[in-house]
Specification:
OB fold (Dihydrolipoamide Acetyltransferase, E2P); mainly beta; 4-stranded mixed β-sheet; 91 residues
């Protein structure tokens, strides 16, 4: 027989850094081209006029201007409509 006691379940051992997601520039703020507006996992917010979506779904400003957030309805793959936030940069 083994003389090693059974190890219990390990809890609270993960120590990963946060991803620092979220809105970085809010509505009404002035931005320059290339600035990060929103960091997100998946396209929870949509890139509108004056913005572009990078490879990791980060929304950047395409031009200098003022940030504006609007709401729109988007049809999902299953056909239901969902409200989504659209990020725009206006001159």
């Amino acid at each position: 027989m083994s003389h090693v006691k059974a190890g219990g379940t390990a809890k609270n051992i993960h120590n990963n850094a946060g991803q620092r997601l979220g809105v970085k520039r809010f509505g009404g703020q002035k931005v320059k081209a290339g600035e990060v507006l929103v960091r997100q996992t998946g396209a929870t917010k949509l890139a509108g006029e004056g913005t572009y979506l990078s490879r990791n779904f980060t929304i950047h400003a395409k031009k200098d201007g003022v940030v504006k957030f609007t709401r729109t309805k988007k049809t999902s793959f299953a056909g239901s409509k969902q409200t989504r936030t659209v990020v725009n940069v206006e001159s």
